[in-house]
Amino acid sequence: MRRSNGRDNFVRFIAVSTVYTGTTGTESGRRRGTVIVMEVPLNADTRFINPDNMFVPPGYTQVVETTGPGRIVYIAGQMGIDKDGRLPGDFRAQAIQTFENLKSALAAVGGSMDDIVKLNNYLLDIAYLPIIRDVRVSYLKGDNPPASTTLQVSGFALVGALLEVEAVAMLPAKAARPKSTTTKARPAKAKAMISKAKSGKAKPSSAKPTPTPRKPVKKSPARKSR
Questions:
Q1: Cα separation of 134 and 186, whole Å?
Q2: Integer Cα distance of 207 and 173 in angstroms
Q3: Second-level CATH architecture of 2-171
Q4: Cα–Cα distance between 137 and 152 in angstroms, integer?
Q5: Mind listing the pLDDT tens digit for each residue in 104-129?
Q6: Fewer CB within 10 Å of terminal CB in the chain, N or C?
Q7: β-strands 70-78, 163-171: how paired?
């Protein structure tokens, strides 16, 4: 199937970077985010494709093609930690919180889980794959599941984490803001002076005018009478 958007002819890139700070594995940890926005001219389209000569995978799509106008949103790897720094010990509970975090990240830019076009899943043990598939399907309910990659890794930066998931999403482009036609406001002091002048209450200036210096007159010498 194809999803397209024929609005503004540009694509808006938004990179969301998340950094975990504090003591790992405890409630004292916190996450801090940074958003970077960049606009590039492009033409619009998003396609989800499972080629006829390739295996049709469960719960994801082999090929996703995206072009603008639209916003490509990159979400940093999310783990099963909530906003208060709590991390459950159960894999399913961590997986559910991970997808809740992805959902919140997308909502911050006006998106939803249906806008995801790519997932990267990192598991501490590949034996957890059936569980993450089950949780993922409950959040990705659209007809076009995203492309996906799943890897087993040796560990994570957060002690006790059992998985981490990255996501890329494609959202409709935002309409450009109209340019303001408002003229610059006059300073308050200037406004007060104009108002007083119009009402006839303007105070005369207390400064005395500077007299114009006169040129000395030369007297002609008196003539003697004959």
A1: 63
A2: 62
A3: 2-Layer Sandwich (3.30)
A4: 20
A5: 999 999 999 999 999 999 999 999 99
A6: C
A7: antiparallel
